[in-house]
Amino acid sequence: MKNEVPPRLHILSRPGLGHGLIVRRGPGKRVGFFGFDFAKQVVTEGQWLKGRIYERRCDLSEDGKYIIYFAANHKPYNVTGGSWTAVSRFPYLKALDLWGKGDSYNGGGLFLSADEYLLNEKFPHKEIQKTSPFKVSRGKVACKIGNNECLGVYFPKLMRDGWQHIDKEGSSQIFQKNYKNWRIRKRCDFGLENPIGVGSYFDENMLINQASEVVLNPKPDNWMDFKQNKVWWTEEGLIKCANLEGERISQVTIAADMRAYSYRRILAPYNK
To answer: Strand, helix or coil at 57?
Structure first.
């Protein structure tokens, strides 16, 4: 019997938001958007794509109501040229703004403020549709580290959201986020010959206590952050959380099991 690879999970959120966007990938080129309420530990299914969503080039607006994402189905005769950047309503894919790209050079973007986003590009997008309330800036974020298609968005987003860049180890960049007496050490790696289930870009997160002991160290290609006085992380298709008490964690909980979901067609409940 063939061993099934659990879905890869990445979560987008913002400091102070009580919810996040789960980007669920697998099996194969099937990617789903899901809303997640951290307090209630409730998952809301959004929409699915047969293709690829580049989660490190995606972002949530300050109020958590909009998403900017970069996706590709590599169908060159499509109006987008086979890849595109879009702005949608949380937690759906249906585009309010649609920008055709036609290649995988850059794309995606960042919300710069409550009313403006950056369209991440060096070679320009083609405007197909623009109905969102946002102003648009075009170009790239000035960043001294990771200035490429994915990391040129991902690293500035990490630093905006409270992560500190603290070191470089070989080709890996090291970030850290502190919360009370705890810290998460995030190692951002890149590799083309990784184990099955690990992407080309992947993070290794470790939860470390005040005594510098590693308390949590999930398998590579996981997400981890502090939310609502807890530590949250993804592992083997699950979203887990635990209380932070003294030098140890307690009450480890499976907050959501994302393994059983599969691709299906869902209509977004909006036109504009």
So the answer is: helix
User: Is the sign of the CA dihedral 166, 141, 32, 229 positive or negative?
Assistant: positive
Quick check: is 29 in a domain? yes
Residue type, 208: I
Residue 166 within a domain = yes
User: Which amino acid type is present at position 158?
Assistant: L
H/E run at residue 242: strand 238-245
Do the bridges between strand 30-37 and strand 19-25 make them parallel or antiparallel, or are there none, so unpaired? Answer: antiparallel
Residue 268 located in a structural domain: no
Number of domains in the chain: 1
Tens digit of each residue's pLDDT (9 = 90 or more) over 114-166: 999 999 999 999 999 999 999 999 999 888 887 778 999 999 999 999 999 99
Phi, psi dihedrals of residue 131, rounded to the nearest 5°? -130, -5
Query: Is 80 among the domain residues?
Result: yes
Assessment of whether the complete model's pTM goes beyond 0.90 = yes
Helix (DSSP H) and strand (DSSP E) numbers for the chain: 1, 22
Q: Which of 38, 92, 19 is nearest to 239 (CA)?
A: 38
The label of the residue with tokens 């109020």 reads 63
Query: Are the C-beta atoms of 244 and 179 separated by less than 8 Å?
Result: yes
Kindly state the tokens that stand for 76.
């060159």
Gap between the Cα atoms of 207 and 247, Å rounded: 11
Range of the domain at 220: 8-257
Q: Is 96 exposed, middle or buried (0-12, 13-18, 19+ CB in 10 A)?
A: buried
* Owner of token pair 């959201």: 161
Q: What is the pLDDT of residues 169-187, one digit of tens each?
A: 988 999 999 999 999 999 9
Q: CA torsion 205→209→214→216, rounded to 10°?
A: -50
3-class secondary-structure state, position 209: coil
